[in-house]
Amino acid sequence: MKLLFSTTVVFLISIFVTIPGLAQKKSGNSEVIPPKDYVPPIWQASPPLQALLTSAIDQTLASYPAGSFPRTDIAATLIDLSGSGTPTWAGVRADERIYPASVVKMLYMTALERQLEDGKVTDSKELERGLHDMIVDSSNEATQYILDVITNTSSGAELPAVDFAKWQNKRNRVNRFFSAMGYTNINANQKTFCEDAYGIEQQSRNYQGQNRNMLTTNAVARLLTEIALGRLNTAERSRQMMDLMHRDPFSPDKGDPDDQSHGFTGRLLIDRKMTDAKLWSKAGWTSTARHDAAYIETADGLKFVLVIFTEHHANEKGAIPAIAGRVIDGLRKLRT
Fold first, then answer.
1. What is the per-residue pLDDT across 243-263, written as a single tens digit (0 to 9) for each?
2. CATH number of the domain that 307 lies in?
3. Against a cut of 0.70, is the pTM above it?
């Protein structure tokens, strides 16, 4: 009887680990590695673009009651990809470390796609479902699953110092990936939650939030640009990432004020009836933050990335589309 039980257990385990399409971490080094031919991008600072972005932000903030929306509550980066030469960029408080909310999910998507391409993770329908829900629906539960797969960690009880150091080293896998490509001043090693973190997740945050996710608009704008230009993966994987971030502002509005297609930069396209414009984005919002990272292409040839982070104005839905509108107007003037 004991032999039969053992044999059955072994048989069941062998079936489980060999089911086709089951997402698995493969043995060996699961570090996330940049493409072999990767070269950090070169952006050219543009005084006219800087004046444009600064003016767009200042005019927008001036539309609010005096002192109610200070410059210290906003950060932004603009990258113009319209020309055929070196992309130009501008920023306002663009290197400030800010809690990114769900915008960090772009980094996790990119890291997972690299592991899939390198064969360090086996794809599955469940993994595809999790990736879709993380980016399209901004699901926090899906994000928790995806980060577990990338880093081979899981939530649970607090650990003794030695064991925790090993766990945290694996959880920093995404940070090492982006650091290897020259990204600086960021931290991307935490799950996103609808409520709060507990156990080892709170231990990883250092209990008081000192180790929270932190990003800059410069880093996010660079990442979105590199995805749009296909610099971080194969053409097919780059297309898949862009497909996940594609938004249709003119799709039926279900009434959700935080819908990524209708509630952020997409609101500008709706208000101006720009039905021929294309939008790819990832928004992030909490009770204190409202962010959007958007790539826009217009029918008259504009192509640009605009990342805007706002703090302490989570319920202010007009600032991001207002800045985006002034940016579009300014870019068109620069072309004339």
1. 999 999 999 988 887 899 999
2. 3.30.450
3. yes
